[in-house]
Write a structure and sequence with these properties.
Helix content: 25-40%
Strand content: 5-15%
Number of helices: 5
Structural class: mainly alpha
InterPro entries: CRAL-TRIO_dom_sf, CRAL-TRIO_domain
Number of strands: 2
Order of helices and strands: HHHEEHH
Shape: elongated
Number of domains: 2
Distance between the termini: 34 Å
Amino acid sequence: MTINQLFIFQLTPYYDTDFNLLRWLKGHDYNLDVIVPKLTNHLLMRKGVWDLDNLPDKPRNHDVHKHWKSGLTGEAKRTPNCIVNIEQTGGNDYWGMSHVHPINEILK
């Protein structure tokens, strides 16, 4: 049974790529006893409140963006399912952002 078959009901088309699944296999030495509970938890988190598959399509209008002004963030064109963030050094107020917003809001 392949890892794709183990997670057939949890994998979304966005996340179901050879690259994503190979990272899990290589990162945990192909040990499915370790991978299955961790990947199950990860996929539930992706689909939950965070809705990570649709995050790139959402507007950048959160209060955190008042501190994180510069930078371009978007989906990589040449590498599927990867996010690229380009920012000018010194333009973002990480100190202010981390003191005003909880980490779970920053990560959104």
